[in-house]
Amino acid sequence: MRAKTIVAALLLLASACIEDVGGPSSTSTPGGPVSTAGGGSAAATRPAVILTPDEDTPACAADSTDGFLQAQSYALFKVYCPTFLPAGFGLEDVRFEEAVQPGTPVPGPGSVVATFKRDSPEASLQFVQGRPPLSVITDVRTSSEGEPTDTSYGGVEASLFDKGVLARSPDGFTHVISADGLTADEIRQIASGMQPLVP
Predict the structure, then answer these.
(1) How many angstroms separate the CA atoms of 161 and 142, rounded?
(2) 25: exposed, middle or buried (Cβ count in 10 Å: 0-12, 13-18, 19+)
(3) What is the pTM of this model?
(4) Tens of pLDDT along 1-20?
(5) 29, burial (CB in 10 Å: exposed 0-12, middle 13-18, buried 19+)
(6) Number of structural domains the chain divides into
(7) How far, CA to CA in Å, does 112 sit from each of 90, 119, 131?
(8) Cα dist from 155 to 158, 180, 194, whole Å
């Protein structure tokens, strides 16, 4: 089982290495939750359809449903949101980061980044989905102690570290939870409560 977990983590790292060229920029595009990455000049345009909650939309924690739905309207992959967070967490930001493939003006799949914070006791969370930079994945691995264990992430297998979770969704995209100030049990609960916004 340990070998299986290590192999899964290595596959996530390899996938991120392929996608990491020209990693994301933190420049935000005014008027929306979109930023361009890799220093490209791709213009972010509003999607033709803005998603709104319906009876099938999960209730995302910390009143973040609308932010995740707006990010989903830009993303070409299925976006997941946390349906559970420990008490006291508030949403800081949800955004879609558009990545430009090196040598071409064609954008890659990009990533959705969401951050949450709690003041007392102090703690923070970051969720990155899609094609995150390699540094996001390696930070979870290198800041954690001990070996990862298996856990569930929205119904799929994932690797639980003491500082976060690495997972791959059924559509082949990487999901990373980075946590500071939380226990492994709290991180496990957050991961198991991740749900896709659209069926």
Answers:
(1) 10
(2) middle
(3) 0.77
(4) 444 444 444 444 444 443 44
(5) middle
(6) 1
(7) 18, 24, 9
(8) 9, 24, 8
